[in-house]
Amino acid sequence: MDSRFIFLQIFIDRDPEAFVPILNFLRTKELDSRGIDLKVIKHEAEFYGITPLAKRLVLCEEVSHSKCGDVLFHGYLNPPEFPHPRMSRQSSSATLTRRSSVSTVTSASQYEITSVSPVGDSSIREICSDSAFVEPRRVLMVIGHHSFVAVAFAHSVFCYRSKDSVGWELIFSTPYLENCVEKMALNAKVSSSSLGDKMLAVSSEGQIRLWSFTTTDHIQGVVKFEIGTFNLSVPVDALFFIGSQLVATSHTGKIGVWNSMTQHWQIQDVMPISSYDTAGSFLLLGCTNGSIYYIDMQKFPLRMKDNDLLVTELYKDPNDDMVTALSVYLTPKTCLSGNWIEIAYGTSSGTVRVIVQHPETVGHGPQLFQTFMVHRNPVVKVMLSEKNLVSICSEYNHVRTWNVTRFRGMISTQPGSTPLASFNVVSLEAQDCHPSLLAGNVIGPFGERDDQQVFIQKLVPDTDYVIVRFSSTGKRICTIRSVDGSNITSYCVHECDASSRMGSRPRRYLITGHSNGCLQMWDLTTALEIASKQSVETTERDDIGNVTQGELLRTLEQCDLSASRCTSPSMSPATSLLHTNLTGSRLKLSYSCPSLSEDDRDEAGATGGKPKYGILISQC
């Protein structure tokens, strides 16, 4: 066949409307978009190899997207240098073995004055487990405490400090960690401890390593000390500090506590844990048997007969439903009497209850205050704050919020909690991903309980932007987009301490970790102020926070929702693959679109309980 006809066949196959500007450019060297999206024209120009036109359109995109961000952009930290794997210990140390009736702890006691910039090798690539590969330069988690931020990579953790005079500076780094980091905890204000004023804990495959370090005005003089390695013997689902005590919990029903005063590691078996929360010195555990237990970590009580932790049952659900979410709010009255506690919890049946411990009912347990039955699926998160009650269920992340009425700081029945909003958050997560990736991408709510709280919404795993929304109403505050185009892999909302200068106040930041190892800071305080000024203009719009169909489809262009590489439309996943173990770039619905009809949900249930992505795209 003549080559001219082959060329014409290609032209006929293209979209005629999008090709009109291309023909016009070939004739006149001028571009008339004719109302067509410039991205579509750029794709056409790249397909036909019209380099001059493609370069012009690329330049237009680059000019419209500043490399220095917008008014909310606060700072950029380059990727650190990663430590080498240690083949053997290079320095001598004294090994202490502490034995108790509960567990064995091996502590390598070694003080050292260290530099904060370890030498790294960018070519290190390790497989953390048989099921999930973790890129070593990918930021897995970001957490903050006071003016410090800890950043977790696959095999190392770095701590930064914020100072007005010098900005963010690297203070502390761990040695190379053989196992992938799964959870971490940071305490930047340790009291009553002779080991140091900062502590960092990292867990991997049931093993917990704890460091202490002391900072000065000069980063060259940072003193760090590895306290020890502790074994919980089961996967660690949560790792956190309550005061100076380190706590690790597992869904299997094990609790590990390290007491900073006695430097003793204690393991306690309780009922299987399905949720937890902390308030002051209290640790509350929601269990699968429908009970809520508490431990006062300040007293660190031990039973005399067997030296076990004193775990007390606080409340029993009337229906014996599994307690799947917990939120504790200490009212201002607590400061005077120490007994006024409000607890909101969600159950596996979708019920949300509020219980209250009055000063007059000490010794009788909390009293049931309110019950909400608005969810038809298990509640995965509740948040009780000064002004709002927020609940989230597992059905496509359905969010319900209420206004909380208070009298003199205490929850009131007149007129009681009133419904405020109902909305959803769309979020896709990669299938069979590492636990640390899930821990670094929770949606919230974030923020202090006496202030405005926010959701952070990331539509797909590999994307360069996130959406910040009010947790009370779901309205959009702002959209944060990476300044260098790298994908956002983790994030946290953190309020840094105010400086000593007169008039200074704490500021709230969104800190995003990226696929290339960098950190980017964003000023949420300014974003909230701007959103508050614009709230009057947008009060009549109910959908201001929702993700539009066009926005969702543009984001989904970056993902492969089908296990098939076929370019033609087909059932996704293919019928032949429904009963096979699919691997690769598959995504699963984490918090997804709520607008599926009952028939669609029934059809999704018939295919193994997983909704069709075709339904997701057409109806979200």
UniProtKB/TrEMBL annotation:
Name of this chain's protein: BTB/POZ domain-containing protein KCTD3
Matches recorded under PANTHER family: BTB DOMAIN-CONTAINING PROTEIN, SETA BINDING PROTEIN 1
Organism expressing this protein natively: Acropora cervicornis (Staghorn coral)
InterPro entries reported in the protein's UniProt record: SHKBP1/KCTD3, SKP1/BTB/POZ_sf, T1-type_BTB, WD40/YVTN_repeat-like_dom_sf, WD40_repeat_dom_sf, WD40_rpt
Annotated Potassium channel tetramerisation-type BTB domain residues: 9-53
Pfam annotation, one family: BTB_2
Gene Ontology terms describing biological process: protein homooligomerization
Lineage: superkingdom: Eukaryota
Gene3D superfamilies recorded: Potassium Channel Kv1.1, Chain A, YVTN repeat-like/Quinoprotein amine dehydrogenase
Organism taxonomic ancestry: Eukaryota, Metazoa, Cnidaria, Anthozoa, Hexacorallia
